[in-house]
Every structure is written in C-alpha cells, then in structure tokens.
C-alpha cells in the first residue's frame, strides 16, 4: 500500500496491477497492488464430452479388468486401462450422469474388449435371440458330461486357426436396475478354457455354462441376449507373446441407446455442473449482453 501523487490523484479504480482508492478524511488516494486471482481452467465442449465418456467406460473397465490384462496387442508401455479407453473413446459414445456414477451404476455398451492379429470370432443373433458364434462343434452336443478334451477336439478339428494350448474366453454381462433408485447397474463376469486334448475335467467346472452351449452345431449361448452382453475371445501364448482376436461386446441395443446422443451428453454435463458460472465447466460459445445493473456486479 502507498500514497498516490501526480496523475494518479485523479484516478479511481483499477489500472493494470494497481488499485486506486479515495477515502474520506484522507487528502491523498491509497494505492494497492491487485491480488493474484487463480485462473479456473475452462474446458471446451469437446473436452467436456470426452470427460463424460470416461465415467461409464471406467465403471465397465473396473469389472472387465481381470480379463483384459493381455487383451490389446501392440500396446508398448501403455497399461490395459489406457488401451481400453483409447480404443473406445471415439468408438462407443455412452454418457451417464453423476448420480448414476456415484450410486455405482453403469450401462453395458458395445465396447472393444480385445484387439489383435488372430482371426475374429463372428457371433450373430438367431431367431430365438440366442447369440451364436461361427465356431463349429461338428457333431458335439455339449452337456454336463462333456469334458475339456472333447470340446478341444471338436474346436481344433472343425475350425481353422485353432490349436492345442489356445484359450477360449467368454465375457458375459447382465443389465439390471436398482429396485429403489432405478439406477442402471451392470454385472460382468468371465470364464476361460485352455484347449487340451487329454484333459478329462468336466467342461462345466471350468466355464460359465451360459456361453458354452451347442446351438445347431455351433458354440453359442444357452439363453437369449436380451438385456445382456457377451463376447468370446480367442487368445494364444507364443512363448510369452500373447496374440488375441479382435472382439466387441455384443449388447442388446435396448440397453444403451437411451444413453447416447446429444440429449444424453447434455444431461451428463449438466449433472456435473454444466455451464454454470460457478463451475466454469465449459467455455461459452458467446457472451450474453448484460444490462447496467449486472455490469456493476449486483
């Protein structure tokens, strides 16, 4: 603080870094240095939209994490989470609100769950809403007595690009809603079997029976895909280097479509503070005109 003389005597208010104040019973103005005001980082609309994607992706990934350790080939030093986010951030745009996230909710979506050089497993929905793969089982009918060796023999002999030691994984998710809050919830699980022509272990001891059913001579699901998601993944360990097939979760569209689009994005952004003055969450595209009363900070 200091005394102002000369031309500052006629100034009142802020000039650059200085604030000039005239007080009663004081024959000179008082000069203060303006305090530093921390800048609030403002986000563009694209940055906000990207952040909203992370909410659902993160919730789904937390459940998929045990099954995705080696699911993305060619990552270099990138960890599994970053690989999952990078693969899906522009691919599948699903938005949930802050309330859903804070209540432990998430929405099943057709995310990419593996990416690699092995031939992808094709799966389609039949007339009974059963998801069926293109993995031929020949004459094998899977039941409670089927062994790992029997499944292995059928898959290796009836399909190209499969060999002993390969792993067949199945990922399954079910969409539900909380009975009290109505928040959408997803429950994910996975199972796997390593093809072994001499393993007499019952197959159903090793895997989730929902994804290991014989449907018209092919491997498929034992129940409709309605309000659920599923994926099969082929992987192979080559002396420590894991190869995988590129696979997406197949999801009933009724589950996630209401959480896509501009309305869903706006709802998600607004739940985190939106464009309010206090949050400075988005940089506004234009500045509205203020009247004289507003201009003086009423």
Structure description:
This protein has 298 residues and is of the alpha+beta class. 23% of the residues lie in helices and 24% in strands. The strands form four sheets. Strands 8, 9, 12, 13 and 15 form a five-stranded antiparallel sheet that branches. The protein has a four-stranded antiparallel sheet with strand order 1-4-3-2, with no helix packed on it. Helix 1 (45-64) crosses helix 2 (80-88). The longest helix is centred in the N-terminal third of the chain and has 20 residues, at 45-64. The two termini are 28 Å apart. The model is unreliable at 276-298 (pLDDT under 50).
N→C terminal distance: 28 Å
Structural class estimated from helices and strands? alpha+beta
- Strand-and-helix sequence, N→C? EEEEHHHEEEHEEHEEEEEEHHH
How many strands appear in the DSSP assignment? Answer: 15
| C-alpha-based Rg, rounded | 30 Å
Strand residues, percent: 15-25%
Overall mean confidence score, pLDDT = 84
> Biggest sheet, open or closed, and with what strands and sense?
5 strands, antiparallel
As residue ranges, the low-confidence spans are 276-298
Question: Judging from the principal axes of the Cα atoms, what is the shape?
Answer: elongated
Q: Please, how many helices?
A: 8
User: Share of helix among residues?
Assistant: 10-25%
Brief account:
With 298 residues, the chain is of the alpha+beta class. It is built from eight helices and 15 strands.
